[in-house]
Fold this sequence. Notes:
The chain is an alpha+beta fold. Helix content is 31%, strand content 27%. The protein has 14 helices and 21 strands. The protein has helices spanning 10-29, 45-49, 110-121, 171-176, 178-184, 188-208, 249-257, 295-312, 337-345, 352-361, 371-383, 436-447, 461-468, 481-489; strands spanning 56-58, 70-72, 75-87, 92-99, 102-109, 129-138, 144-155, 212-213, 219-220, 232-235, 240-244, 262-270, 282-291, 318-321, 324-327, 333-336, 391-397, 406-407, 410-421, 424-431, 474-480. Strands 8, 12, 13, 16, 17, 18, 19, 20 and 21 form a 9-stranded mixed β-sheet that branches. It has a 5-stranded mixed beta barrel with strand order 3-4-5-7-6. Strand 6 and strand 7 form a beta hairpin. Helix 6 (188-208) crosses helix 8 (295-312), helix 10 crosses helix 11 (371-383) and helix 12 runs antiparallel to helix 13. The N and C termini lie close together (8 Å). The model is unreliable at 1-9 (pLDDT under 50).
Amino acid sequence: MAKANDDATGGSGRMLEASRRDKLKRLQELGIDPWGGRFDGYASIAQILARQDEIVVEPKGDGAAGQPPELHGPQVRAAGRIVLRRIQGKKMQFLHLQDWTGRLQVLLSKSLVGDENWAVVECLDLGDIVGVDGEFKRTKTGEPTIFAERVHFLTKSIETPPAKHEGLSDPELRQRMRYLDLIHTDGVLDRFLKRTKIVHSIRSTLAAEGFVEVEGPTLHAIAGGAAARPFVTHHNALDIDLYLRIALELHLKRLLVGGMERVYELGRVYRNEGISPRHNPEFTMLEVYQAYGDYRAMMDLTERLIVEAIRASGQPRVLHWGGVPLDFTPPFARKTYHELFVEHTGVLPDDPEAVAQYARSLGLETSGRHPDVIKNEVFEKRVEDRLTGPVFVMDYPASICPLTKRKRDNPAIAERFELFVAGMEVANAYTELNDPDLQEMLFSQQLEGLPDEDSMARMDRDFVRALRHGMPPAGGLGIGIDRLVMLLTGSQTIREVILFPLLRPE
């Protein structure tokens, strides 16, 4: 694995660490706690920079000709990490102080801070965390700067930060040492702060629509709600195997039965499957259920959630992802599965032999497989990547949608949509199936042929029992939050929007 700083290895690295530890010892000898403590009354760097209009120009002395004017500004207090340091002789230094709102220059002068405080300044290193008090004004070159009158030592950094010009270029190193990535890679902290705004916006929009947030169990006795391989664990006291949840759906539908008419959960889901630029075994899912709604109501809700999330993150509705413009101005395009299949393959999807022949030309296996399964594999391979979107793909083959209500005039079609953007599925929604007998039959068909020991081979009979008590007609929606954040922040891989993606042990 690449190192954070090649200079920080071997003898050179030991010398640099020894120098930092020597400064730590000197701080202690000065009676300074190198690990700091409570520091009240400071403003964020963004708040300080917003006060530039308070910097005033005043004539110097009696205002005689040739006397340059003086700048005066407000007294401020800031705190942050030293990310740049320039030493100007023995009595002056310039720092760049960084917090999570921005970066600001600090001037340290022995004449301003005094001899006693200058001894603290001489113990500073890149990466240290400090507080400063001083006057906020501009240098002769016009740079907004805090002219420090006192330095407060808050935390010593023992490790040497990455080399200035090399930074963190190795993707795995950036993900493994995310703390350094946030400090030293431009745009990373902002991306994750945008993620929090997007998630907050989703919650706010749902609350405004009358939805309530709940927390379902993450340990399930039966892995249900999706076709995916679960992670298995064991509960010692009960001596039973349990599964980390692969979906949120079945417990939320139980709440519909119980009278919670607008309900959602935004939480982690776990699938013991591959890792790719669009997949992480642990990811964040939103699932929403609305009594007396259907999949078209979920389309409208999906548009509102995404448009509001874009607004909350301070971006225009036309974004760019991988150089491709994406226009999120509602209404999003709505096309049927059937018409997109024909458009991108030239084959009629209701002609099984023609679909099978086309599938074989793509190298897909067709022997002994259901025609709709073959059809959907063709769709995934040939159509999905071409859907720039945003586009709602509507009305899927019913046989591949065991939790979805069928169309009344065509039971071979399920009332389901998937939202595609830049070739990625971002959302999936149904008019929810609430017929308990049909649901039990479809579960049985789905599980048929799986070995008894397979974790997916067990039917959630309590869920079927819940349906027998009556679940109102409803629309249900699932949104992959990580993929949505990828699109709204221009990130090319899912690992760029998950703070700590799964990695092999170091």
